[in-house]
Amino acid sequence: MSGTPFLLADSVTKRFGTNQVLTRVSLPVMERDVVCIVGPSGSGKTTLLRCFALLEAPSEGRIVMQGVPIATADPDRQVKNAARAVRSDIGMVFQHFNLWPHMSVLENLTEAPMLVKKMPKDEAVAIAEGLLKKVDLADKRDAYPARLSGGQQQRVAIARALAMSPKVLLFDEATSALDPELRREVLLVMRQLAQEGMTMLVVTHEMGFARHVGTRTVFMDRGEIVEEAPGAAFFDAPKTERAKRFLQQFEEE
Amino acid sequence: MFKYQFRWDTVWGSFDFLMGGLEMTLIISAITLVLAMAGGLIIALLDMSRFRALRWIGVSIGEVVRNTPILVQLLWVYYVLPIVFGVRIEGLVALIIGLALYQAAFISEVYRSGIQSVPKGHREAAQVLGLTPFQAFRRIVLPQAIRMTLPPLASNFVQLIKFSSLGAVISVSEITRRGMELSATNFRPLETFTFIAVVYFFICWPLAMAIRFWERRLQAR
Ligand SMILES: Nc1ncnc2c1ncn2[C@@H]1O[C@H](COP(=O)(O)OP(=O)(O)OP(=O)(O)O)[C@@H](O)[C@H]1O
Ligand SMILES: [Mg+2]
To answer: Which strand (E) or helix (H) includes residue B167?
Structure first.
């Protein structure tokens, strides 16, 4: 690991009122990294991801992209402009998909490119159709989200994020809301993206994915990064007591 | 009552007169709904304003209107406004202003709950993709909110049809007023007001049923 991180949480602290949810979290993400964040419920994983997605502002510390600060506790004009410039380079996939129900699948995919990038409609449609093929949903282009299974909806959500050609994709428990038999189809798409070299930050309870697809695993507990190890090493030889206890739950399952 | 001789012909004889009143009722209701929709938007915007003074105005209008009787409000607009502003207001104008204000206070709540019915995540998804807050509101929140507000707005129309009968006390010549005038000359209040009640019912009831059906379909989505 060398050079400037592609994306960096630089000593990020986040408080909601008096509740401190993140404590000086520093996490560099290099290009083509697939960083998996695991940890018990309430440990601050979602909050950290939302800071990276610029949905929450840190209370202290900064989010830095390729050396340029894009979020601080008290952003000045320069930071705000930088954030606006890179906004759509950071894509996010949510636990509950958050597809727009009043738009067809195709419209969900073309909306942002047309509005934000001012892309002509036929170009946006062509890209959207390509992406739908990629997530194996070409035949659903005119369906409305409510008509799709959870797994299909999440694949559409991934395609929607990809339509903006992001440089990094954040996943917040992308499979947690799905029935077990629908998770695989989503995990396969995520694995394919990782293999294609997409930079990814993945909050997940899928230990198999973290072990086999992740390049690094980060273990969070009570708002701190407790342990961090490359790929499978975290699972084979957890160093801290807390991580060992956390991993035990999954063995028992 | 036992030996009552129904004289429906007194009503049929004035059928056109009464239907003219019904037309008036529907026109008043429609105009008032449009004004109330605009007024409701203004109150909702005041309620959500960044400025405390504006929020206070919005909330106050809502509270006053919701916590005083509609009839008193109408009488107030009809008798007090002219004194304050030194102009004579026709009953019709007073009725429309009063009803519109009253419904606007409720419609502002309809808008608010319509907007709140759109999950925050839909807006956040838009934000992450790079839409500005305004774009997200216009393209993602508003279309969904409007869909949710249409049935309640239609219900407001039904309510207006009924409330517009209050115009009778400030001599607006809608159907109830014409019924009062008719019964004062034909001395047949039973036939006259029964007929008028039936007319209201067969306009409001199907509308209310259709709206209920519509709402259930929206909820099922
Ligand atoms: N908007 C908010 N306002 C107040 N408190 C919040 C907010 N968002 C999160 N929290 C609190 O922050 C803490 C961490 O929440 P977070 O969602 O980041 O945890 P998590 O690791 O993602 O948990 P899970 O595995 O259950 O999703 C929790 O105690 C939560 O109640
Ligand atoms: Mg979470």
So the answer is: none
A42: Cβ below 6 Å to ligand 1? yes
Strand order in the sheet with A224-230: A90-93, A168-172, A199-203, A34-38, A216-221, A224-230
How far is the C-alpha of B195 from the C-alpha of B202, rounded, in Å?
A: 11
What is the least distance, in Å, from the CA of B126 to any CA of chain A?
8
Expressed in angstroms and rounded, the spacing between residue A42 Cα and the centre of ligand 1 is 5
Tell me, in angstroms, the distance from the centre of ligand 1 to residue B124's CA.
16
Give dist(CA A230, CA B155) in Å, integer: 61
ipTM of the complex: 0.93
Residue written as tokens 């390509």?
A130
Angle formed by the axes of helices B142-163 and B91-116, to 10°? Answer: 150
Considering just the CA atoms, what is the radius of gyration of chain A in Å?
18
Nearest to A187 by CA among A211, A151, A221: A151
Q: Which residues of B160-198 are buried (b: 16+ CB within 10 A; e: fewer)?
A: bbebbbbbbbbebbbbbbbbbbbbeebebeebbbebbee
> What atom in ligand 1 is closest to the CA of residue A19?
5
A26, A60, A72, A86 from A11: Cα distances, Å: 5, 7, 11, 21
Out of B121, B128, B139, closest to residue A91 by CB:
B128
More confident residue, B89 or A155: A155
Q: What are residue A227's phi and psi, to 5 degrees?
A: -155, 150
Cβ neighbour number for residue A118 with a 10 Å cutoff = 8
Chain mean pLDDT for chain B: 91
- In chain B, the N- to C-terminal Cα span, in Å, equals 53
What are the boundaries of each domain within chain A? 7-252
Output the CATH code of domain A7-252: 3.40.50.300
- Report d(CA A102, CA B140) in Å as an integer: 8
**CB A97 within 8 Å of CB B112:** no
- For position B130, what pLDDT does the model report? 95
Residue A14 and residue A22 in contact, taking contact as beta carbons nearer than 8 Å? yes
Angle between helices B120-129 and A150-162 (to 10 degrees): 30
How confident is the model at residue A251, as a pLDDT?
76
For chain B, give the longest Cα–Cα distance.
Answer: 78
Could you tell me the two tokens for B142? 């508003």
